[in-house]
UniProtKB/TrEMBL annotation:
It comes from Cryobacterium glucosi. This is Penicillin-binding protein. The keyword Magnesium does not apply. Pfam families: Transgly, Transpeptidase. InterPro entries: Beta-lactam/transpept-like, Glyco_trans_51, Glycosyltr_51/Transpeptidase, Lysozyme-like_dom_sf, PBP_transglycosylase, PCN-bd_Tpept.
Length: 727
């Protein structure tokens, strides 16, 4: 067959064999060596070319990045806020914490050197040398992003910090759609986003020291779930602080940063990263970081080996979060949070306030008195069950400091939960705060019964009548026409036929003092007949009294007997106003607030106003002291020890569905009630709890709280009224 002239023919074997041995050996080895050399030269040329290309790309990237905007506005980090009460010793006691992100920002010196070295060695070995951007790593990341569509490593710690800052800005947005769009922009896999990130990183390095950037990075970064920042991570995963982390613990936490879902340590049942395999995924990353720390001279060989051999043993410590962790103080806690969301100190509008609350970082020191709160919780638990067959029973206790409006305790007979799923598990759960208004805790309030009569007494004295003056109090079916300067004269005909509690109260005439001591219904209707119904309503309003549902107070003749639904806290503040010589202070729950940077933020203040004259308040107190010593509240008075001068008034609604005991010393006012929350309710005089008759539970609870109050706060004599009021 023809021979292709392009094919090189081997020489005849005789030619080959005529060569000497060494030459033959040389000829046999030479061709492969030349090929290998050529391959090495070609590889070198390719590597040099790639280096040139990468260098050019790096130069271009740097030029572009440097010419992009580099001014990153660093906002406030989202942190948890803490609510405190103050113990008798003056130390703060944590009630609850709140956060969207569980974070506690700490100073550089409060972070273990192991953490800092682990972060730089594992994430960015050149951190202290470059100007904010790891050029080679970033170019690799950009090239990978271009070809794979997925953002890949290469980011310096400063760049990672920039990305976290941008994400945090998104988290602060209150609108869900805006937040999602912002997040997508901040995390999109694109060269453009990477270049902007680089530019901002370079700008940061011009403004902040390396240590400050590292500190902020360790405070902002996520450690899985809602855990953010090294301090919260140390507490959550190892029940320690960032300052006290050991070398293996520090490396394990820094490992989480690389991939929080894969490496977090709170999934003990995980097949790939759980107890059974020694948290294998985290350990692999942890040991890589330990190797890097050794390589870069951050730890000794001995420390490295000991840490490598150390088992990963997390101690998961759930943080206190939400009012449910405040136990019996949960409803007070809930009211504090409602206050923060509505107080102008936290922002001029609702959206700003919500954003501030979400960002957190506040320490809120409340007015709660732990001694009184403990007494209220204990006596409530002992005297009013959380549930009762056929009766949606409610129990309420709240106390207010006289002269300041500070709310000292708040308790009710239900277990707190705002989770509908939890509430569905039993009637013992409720998210409604029975002590407050509809807008503060979801309650429509309760009829106050005869505790409301004191406002008719106030108007009686205000109009110049005396306590000894008598009125027609004979029960009858037609009381004629009542004066009402707001709505015109009111006549109710035979339909209005109020009764008294016992036949001994059915005399033809009763004095204002006698009607107050014995709580005679017809006596107070007789007093109202000689007054202006509108004036009685305005006097009640002067003490801060208002309907819990936000509607105007009813002012018909029946309202004199306590038909308005009012929050117990409102009544406690009003009774404190009587005890304070007629000066009523609006309730407050917060003594002081510090912001994320430790500065004081103005707390809501109480507004104190003169509701009635000092003389009128003295006349009211004179009569209400006798209610305690010889009237319907005597049972509470006798059970209170130590005793100080005290005023009070009882209340019972129709068919004995709600029973009240409201009273005060010159230091503390307390309202206690057993109420029907919904439905038909029960006659409390024929209903018995384990502790005794339901109707008398108020006289077991009120003394328990006021005994503690009297022991702690004392009490002074009430102002003596002018003789013209009592003779």
């Amino acid at each position: 067959m023809p021979v292709d002239p392009r094919v090189r023919r081997h020489p005849p074997s005789s030619y080959h064999s005529s060569r000497n041995e060494s030459h033959s050996r040389t000829m046999t080895i030479s061709p492969p060596s030349r090929k290998k050399g050529r391959r090495l030269r070609r590889r070198s040329i390719v590597l040099i070319a790639m280096g040139v290309v990468v260098a050019v790309i790096a130069t271009v990237v740097t030029v572009i990045a440097v010419n992009l905007p580099d001014d990153l506005e660093i906002g406030r980090l989202s942190q948890k806020s803490n609510l405190y009460a103050t113990t008798s010793a003056g130390t703060p006691y944590l009630l609850a914490s709140f956060y969207d992100q569980n974070r506690v920002e700490v100073a550089f010196d409060a972070i273990s050197p192991f953490v800092k070295d682990a972060a730089t060695s594992g994430e960015d070995p050149g951190f202290y040398d470059h100007g904010g951007v790891d050029i080679w790593g970033t170019v690799t990341g950009i090239v990978s992003t271009v070809f794979t569509g997925t953002a890949r490593g290469g980011s310096s710690i400063t760049q990672q910090y920039v990305k976290n800052v941008l994400v945090q800005k998104c988290e602060a947005l209150t609108d869900e759609t805006e937040r999602a769009d912002c997040y997508n922009t901040a995390t999109e896999a694109s060269p453009d986003r990477k270049l902007k990130e680089m530019s901002l990183a370079i700008g940061l390095e011009k403004k902040y020291s390396k240590d400050e950037i590292l500190r902020q990075y360790l405070n902002i970064t996520g450690f899985g779930g809602s855990v953010y920042g090294i301090e919260a991570a140390a507490s959550y995963y190892f029940n320690t602080t960032a300052a006290n982390l050991t070398l293996p613990q520090a490396a394990s936490l820094v490992a989480i940063v690389n991939n929080p879902v894969k490496f977090q340590l709170d999934k003990p049942d995980s097949a790939t990263n759980g107890v059974a395999n020694g948290y294998a995924d985290n350990k692999d990353r942890r040991d890589y970081i330990l190797d890097a720390m050794l390589e870069h001279g951050k730890i000794s060989q001995a420390d490295h080996d000991a840490a490598i051999n150390a088992p990963i043993e997390p101690t998961i410590t759930e943080p206190s979060t939400g009012c449910q962790t405040a136990g019996g103080s949960a409803y007070f806690c809930d009211l504090v949070m409602q206050t923060l969301r509505n107080d102008p100190a936290f922002g001029a509008d609702a959206e700003t306030r919500l954003a501030n609350v979400r960002l957190g970082g506040y320490n809120v020191y409340t007015t709660l008195d732990l001694d009184l709160q403990s007494a209220a919780e204990t006596t409530m638990k002992a005297n009013v069950p959380a549930t009762y067959p056929g009766w949606d029973v409610g129990g309420v206790i709240t106390s207010v400091e006289v002269g300041t409006g500070r709310v000292l305790d708040m308790a009710q007979n239900k277990d707190y939960s705002q989770d509908p799923a939890v509430q569905a598990t039993g009637d013992n759960f409720s998210g409604i705060n029975y002590n407050t208004d509809l807008g503060q805790g979801g309650s429509n309030g309760f009829q106050t019964g005869s505790t409301y009569k004191v406002f008719t007494l106030a108007e009686w004295l205000n109009e110049g009548h005396s306590l000894s003056e008598s009125v027609s109090s004979r029960p009858r079916s037609n009381w004629g026409t009542f004066e009402d300067s707001c709505n015109g004269p009111q006549s109710y005909g035979a339909a209005f036929n109020p009764k008294n509690d016992s036949s001994s109260e059915n005399g033809s005439y009763s004095s204002a003092l006698q009607s107050t001591i014995q709580s005679i219904n017809t006596g107070f209707i007789g007093m109202a007949k000689e007054l202006d119904l509108c004036g009685i309503r305005k006097t009640a309003e002067a003490f801060g009294v208002h309907r819990a549902d936000g509607n105007a107070l009813e002012q018909g003749a029946a309202s004199v007997l306590g038909t308005n639904e009012i929050a117990p806290l409102t009544m406690a503040a009003a009774y404190a106003g009587i005890a304070n010589d007629g000066v009523t202070c609006t309730p407050i729950l917060i003594d002081r607030i510090t912001g994320p940077d430790g500065t004081e933020i103005p707390a809501p203040t109480s507004n104190c106003t003169q509701s009635v004259s000092t003389d009128v308040a003295a006349g009211m107190s004179y009569a209400m002291q006798r209610v305690m010593t010889s009237g319907t509240a005597a049972a509470s008075y006798r059970a209170t020890t130590p005793r100080v001068p005290m005023i009070g008034k009882t209340g019972t609604t129709d068919d004995n569905k709600d029973t009240w005991m409201s009273g005060a010393s010159t230091k503390v006012a307390t309202v206690v009630g057993v109420v029907n929350v919904s439905g038909d309710g029960q006659d409390q005089r024929t209903t018995y709890f384990d502790s005794g008759q339901a109707a008398t539970a108020r006289h077991r609870m009120w003394p328990d709280v006021m005994s503690v109050a009297n022991e702690k706060y004392g009490g002074d004599s009430f102002t003596v009224p002018p003789r013209s009021m009592t003779r």
